[in-house]
Amino acid sequence: MPETADDELLNIEGLTIEIERRQDTVTLLDGVDLSIKKKRSFGIVGESGCGKSITVNALLGLLPYPLRVSGGRARFKTGAEELELLSLPPEKLREIRGREIAMIFQEPMTALDPVFNVEFQMCEALEFHRPGMGKKERSALCLEMLRKVNIPRPDQALKSYPHELSGGQLQRVMIAIALMNSPRLLSADEPTTALDVTIQAQILDLMNTLKAERDTSIIMITHDLGVIAETCEEVAVFYAGQVVEEAGAADLFHRTAHPYTRGLLRAITSLGGEKRELYTIPGMVPSGGDWKPGCRFADRCEQKMDKCTQAMPALMAAEGPGHRCRCFLWGDETETGGTV
Ligand SMILES: Nc1ncnc2c1ncn2[C@@H]1O[C@H](COP(=O)(O)OP(=O)(O)O)[C@@H](O)[C@H]1O
Ligand SMILES: [Mg+2]
């Protein structure tokens, strides 16, 4: 089916994030463009520190000081309306958060309050976004949501406190809370990283099922391409504050274009599979302020050429529709800006 602009739920253009330090200002995210489609799962993958979390946090005004958005647009299409998320006033963002866009995080324990039981916390989310709903109705919906996320003995779980549930159960509660208001977009930031592999596979299955049932779009953030393989239709690979490859998931895995993505592929922890010796890409992700001219991956790249340290490659067409790659193996286009 040909895609049209109508299929788009969120369009991010040139998103740039900086941090103010005492002496200088440093760029952490450098002109990121992303297009999230309705009812699809979009993966953001890259090693720790590449800018995945700050990207989604910026959308909902959740950047901690002294980080700030210094450029870009993020147009969120709710029905007939189009909202520019980056310039919405805080009270409007609060309305959107949880209702239109819900988030789940790596550590469910930190997102839940230890002194209140599950029911109280679920009802609180409903009270804020659906003030008209009666108490009985709210409790019934909470129970139904816990059933949907396959929590064993949901009535008992409803009365439990966070410390009485396992990590996997807590993450199910978080998913239940996130989906309770039927958001158009669910952002899941490393939702299974803290869980063991069997539970991880179950949670990903659950997210896939709920997405299909509820027509929710998902942004799945992970450092593990194995998670992307299980869940996503489109993928952007982040490296040092930039997108270095973007493609449909099948093309990313079968026509891998960027040497960095190939490195990530070798480092996959196969889901539910046997633990084997893990490959890690030699070297480290350079942090903001530490970017040299040229390709930011050059220092760690097995295919480095002379020009790689001289100019920044642009995102260039690679094999397959919409497949783009920031690497001179795919052409000679360079990009100005950045640190070049
Ligand atoms: N609160 C903060 N203070 C200073 N630097 C930060 C803060 N949060 C993130 N950063 C920096 O921003 C960059 C991107 O971070 P993040 O988005 O958390 O990476 P990822 O989610 O890909 O692991 C990193 O270099 C990180 O050190
Ligand atoms: Mg992160």
What's the name of the CATH homologous superfamily of the domain at 5-91 and 222-335? P-loop containing nucleotide triphosphate hydrolases
What's the total helix number? Answer: 11
Spatial order of strands in the largest sheet: 6-7-8-3-9-10-13-12
Mean pLDDT: 91
CATH topology of the domain at 5-91 and 222-335, what is it called? Rossmann fold
- Helix and strand sequence: EEEHEEHEHHHHHEHEHEEHHEEEE
General description of the model:
With 340 residues, the chain is of the alpha/beta class. It has a domain at 5-91 and 222-335: Rossmann fold (3-Layer(aba) Sandwich), CATH 3.40.50. The protein is 30% helix and 24% strand. The chain has helices at 52-59, 90-96, 108-111, 118-129, 135-148, 154-158, 167-180, 197-214, 225-231, 249-254, 259-266, and strands spanning 8-20, 25-37, 41-45, 67-78, 81-84, 101-104, 185-189, 217-222, 234-239, 242-248, 312-313, 316-317, 324-325, 334-335. An 8-stranded mixed sheet has the order 6-7-8-3-9-10-13-12, with helices on both faces. The chain has a 4-stranded antiparallel sheet with strand order 2-1-4-5, covered by helices on one side. Strand 9 and strand 10 form a beta hairpin. It is globular. The model has no long low-confidence stretch (mean pLDDT 91). It binds adenosine-5'-diphosphate and magnesium ion (MG).
Would you spell out the secondary-structure blueprint of this structure?
Elements: E1 8-20, E2 25-37, E3 41-45, H1 52-59, E4 67-78, E5 81-84, H2 90-96, E6 101-104, H3 108-111, H4 118-129, H5 135-148, H6 154-158, H7 167-180, E7 185-189, H8 197-214, E8 217-222, H9 225-231, E9 234-239, E10 242-248, H10 249-254, H11 259-266, E11 312-313, E12 316-317, E13 324-325, E14 334-335
Parallel strand pairs: 3-8, 3-9, 6-7, 7-8
Antiparallel strand pairs: 1-2, 1-4, 4-5, 9-10, 10-13, 11-14, 12-13
Helix pairs in contact: 4-5, 4-7, 5-7, 7-8
This protein binds adenosine-5'-diphosphate and magnesium ion.
